[in-house]
Specification:
Blueprint lengths: L8 E8 L3 E8 L4 E8 L6 H17 L7 E9 L2 E3 L4 E5 L4 E4 L1 H9 L3 E5 H12 L8 E6 L3 E7 L2 E2 L30 H4 L2 H12 L2 H4 L27 H9 L3 H25 L3 E5 L7 H14 L2 H4 L3 E4 L6 H15 L7
Parallel strand pairs: 1-4, 4-8, 9-12, 12-13
Antiparallel strand pairs: 1-2, 2-3, 5-6, 6-7, 9-10, 10-11
Helix pairs in contact: 3-11, 5-8, 7-8, 8-9
Length: 346
Amino acid sequence: MLRLNRGAGFVLGGEIGVDFLNVTVLDLTGQVVWKVREQADNRRRPAETMARLAELMAAAAARQRDTPRGLLGIGIGVPGLVDQERGVLLYAPNLRWEDVAVGPYFAERFGVPVQVENEANAGAMAEAWCGVARGTRHAVYYSVGIGVGTGIIIQGELVRGSGGMAGEIGHTTVDVTGPRCACGNRGCLEVYASEAALRRFYQQLAGPQAADRGRHPRGEEAADGRPNGAAGTDDTPPSTHDIVEAAKGGDAAATAALNRVATYLGVSVANAINTFNPDMVIIGGPLVEAGRFILEPIRQIATERALPLMQRRTRIVLAECGPDACAIGAGVMALQDLFRVRVVTG
């Protein structure tokens, strides 16, 4: 019997986020053996961003023990539309990147095959490989961060569409007269159900305290003697983590802001259930940190708005792979390419 030597080599999975970089190292069975995450503002900086991600990847590879084959492939997840065959990021509105040759850059740098994939597709792959969707044939994965994307799995396969760009649910219109989205349209789901929307809702609901009060343990006072409890500092707008922690501490504005975002997500989930009839809808991305504050209202709205026969068959759950889902899924895609049987014709 042949057995795969999991330590014969490794692959790297990376993610280029709007405000972070992430790298994971996977052995040949897809198990994560090392990872690193770094905060970085990557807007309008493709050359600098790719150079820094390459440095992180080189450092990650150098930390691995000697293996017979070494680095065998790389997968990279990006928040935008991808030409997968050429490895080109065609358009990423939140990054402000357009026509960036991500794959060729890393292939030249490392001398191994490189797969470039939309980050929501990569996250869906991670959940199907080692997360909550293992064994599930029909699933919709929501990646909710600065933007909103979906990875759609039907009959166990990712749905890519004719140009490989399917799943941009964050740019479906929920209000025809709504605010301008980064993509140029108005009233996109992303405007109402992203981290940016959460911060905007919180600041509207909390008023001046959202910016004026510092982050202090509930029950203490700020250094200037003012009461605490709201997210954010004098100089920094509240982050998702700040707002979630405030909600856990009983902040009514934080709880209401999370509920408002979850309401819009719930409407979108109901639409996805009616459209794709999935076994499972998975809520992933940075907003998954909010846990029950978003999951319960999403489930409630979906129950109210989806067709009952389909809604009753669909589980709505939180992702299991956490903030590393995209990087893990990208690495899994590199493994799949490595072990793909090549067909020679002619």
